[in-house]
Amino acid sequence: MKILYLLRKPVDHIDPSLFLSSESQGDVVFLDQSAMTSFPYKGGSVFSLSNNESQKGLSYDDLVKKIFQSDHTIVI
Description:
Strand order of the largest sheet: 4-3-2-1-5
Structural class: alpha/beta
Strand content: 25-35%
Low-confidence stretches: none
């Protein structure tokens, strides 16, 4: 099952148990530049819409493809 996490909030405002590697598997996309921080996530890839150096850049078209390829999309 593919899960896509779309994060609008900063990581420090999200319950860390959501991203336990044994519990969650899927890609994470930071939607807001102010939400970004170093994010050691092992359940999948971490992307950014703002092309920050610390995360992989993701175009809007790629984001739409990821949404449709995912079984579940969670927006936080």
